[in-house]
Structures are given as structure tokens and as C-alpha cells.
Amino acid sequence: MSVTIAMPRMSTDPELTAAQAKYPESLARAGADVCWVQLSDPERAVQEALTCDGLLLPGGGDMDPQFYGQKRIPACGEPNLLRDAAEPPLLRAFLAADKPVLGICRGIQVMNVVLGGTLYQDIKPFAHVPHNDHWAKIHTVTVRRGTKLEQILGQDTVLVNSQHHQAVDRIAPGLTLAALSEDGIVEAIEKPDAKFCLGVQWHPEWLSAADPAMQGLFDAFMAACRH
């Protein structure tokens, strides 16, 4: 069975950047192809995306805080109007169709906000691990027992990279905490009643070539898409 994953186009540049290329590389190792979804027409984007087997919400800039009832503070980045307009209906459509969803970095934040949660606009005051310029493993995440994430990773702790200044604050109703960093930052959430709906704050696509556990996230996502 050929598996195709819908992924929002992260930039207007037709050439994939090195960062963008890591997602299809990880998905290809799991046996899937990527369908890049153009976002200028959200309704058409949803229709196009739903022809695919799953949805990957990738990393990127900050979501507009108006979506979770807050005013933007200076430390919050400028919103990406295309992504902010198109990704919420994409997520809702895939959940309504009970099709698998994987969120990474911005993706976990979109997932939480769309379902009714909030974000920290800037976690630097909480002295979280600083950005890692080389995408290497930099801190430990504790995985909650009994979660889908634990089932996928097969371990209680995992070393991850860190490339974010925002994070989940209040977890949305219907989502559950799946992993925490040492300093209490939410690193993963999941939706237990969905076929597959998992979000992680780190970037497994930069680790998956060398780490079977990180590749396992993409493999599990693909398995859900195939069934």
C-alpha cells in the first residue's frame, strides 16, 4: 500500500530548505511519500490534504496568540498568516475523519491551541534548556507510562534536541500529557480517543537517521496510516 502524508508548505520558496528536507527523509524511511499542501486557499488545502492517509504538522514560527485569547508580547514572533489560517481546519478535518496526525514543534502547539489549550509565548523566563544550534541531543525527557508515546519509544526516558522558545501551557481538554522535560516543560501530548494523534516538542526528524527510537515515531505514524 502506498502511503501519502499531507504536510503544510512551510515557506513560499519552492526549493526545500535543509530543515524541510528532514521531514520527507524520515517519512521515506518509514515507507511514505509527502504531498506538500499549498495554504493560500484553506478550503482547497483541506480537500487536497484529505486525499492523503495522514497529516504531519511541522515546525515553524509562532502561532498568533489571539487563537488562545492572549495579546502578543514582544518576545512572541510575528504570526505566519497562511499557516495560522489553514492549519486549524486541516487538523480538525483529519480528526473528524479519524486519520492519523503527527505534530512536531509548532505542530504540537497548533494541536493544543486548536483543541482549546494555551501556550507560553516565551519560555526563556523559565530557564528552559537554551536553543541547540547543532540539533544534537541536549536534554532528557521523561515519558509517562501507559501512553502511546511510551509504547512507541519503548523506554521511560529519551534524549532530545531543543529548538523552541514557546511551549504548551494549559493542556487542551481531550489531550493528555505524554512527556515532560526535567524542568517541567510539556514535551509531548496525545489524544487517547483518536486513531493516532501525537505531538512532540522536539525535532525527531533531525535525530531519526541515527536513532531508532526517533525513527520509531515516524514508523508508528506510518503504521497507523496503513491501517
From TrEMBL:
SUPFAM superfamilies in the record: Class I glutamine amidotransferase-like
PROSITE patterns per UniProt: GATASE_TYPE_1
GO biological process: polyamine catabolic process
Keyword Electron transport tagged: no
Single GO molecular function: gamma-glutamyl-gamma-aminobutyrate hydrolase activity
Signal peptide: none
Domain of life: Bacteria
Swiss-Prot/TrEMBL keywords: Hydrolase
A UniProt-annotated Pfam family: Peptidase_C26
Cellular-component GO terms for this entry: cytosol
Protein name: Gamma-glutamyl-gamma-aminobutyrate hydrolase
The species this protein was found in: Faecalibacterium hattorii
